[in-house]
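Treating backbone geometry as a discrete language has practical consequences that deserve illustration. No coordinates are needed to read the tokens, only the vocabulary itself. For completeness, the protein is quoted in full, as a sequence line and a line of structure tokens:
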Amino acid sequence: MEHQAKTVIDYYVLCNQLKYVIRSGWKIWNVSRERLESVAEHVYGVQQLAIAMWSQYGYDINIFKVLFMLAIHELEETVIGDLTLWDISAEEKLHQGHQAVHMILKDFVRQEQIESLIFEFDERKTPEARFAYYCDKLECDIQSKLYGEEGCVDLNHQEGNVVFHDAAVHRLLNEGRDWASMCLAFSREKYGYDVNFIEVSNYVERHPIGKLKVKQ
């Protein structure tokens, strides 16, 4: 029984490290802020976004499966770090990520069940996986809008930013978009959102959101 307890705590302590891993995208874009979002905070944010999207748009999906997927979708980063597609190819990132997850879960009784959700998320063939993937991408863009509203990004000071020289990024910025609007438009073009995610993305682009309050 003590082995089971050790496995639980080892896993918890490993995942706890994601509270201190800053999301790579914010460092790449030289976001200037005293405190930047961690990977663990992203995991929390994307789950909350999923709940809201599911509720408001009536998706016929297993939301509990989605939330489980999102709870573990960054698990690999406890081992390989928060790599971007500008650091490594998509194929190699997938390979390294699956190896890392297999190692992390090797002592889990329900290893295969949990790993299967990672594979499903990465393959994006089921309605739940596609929905979770859209939430993952849109949450990042919403956070970029919040940082943009705070004035945390100066496009005139992007030395060393490999993403800044991407052709699609340059085209969108040359159309007169600010940084956050570029991020939102880039994702709408690249990730194949459904109409509901497009609607929310467009809303975020058109409206200030940092001062929104819940109605009493």
Remarks:
- The mean pLDDT is 93.
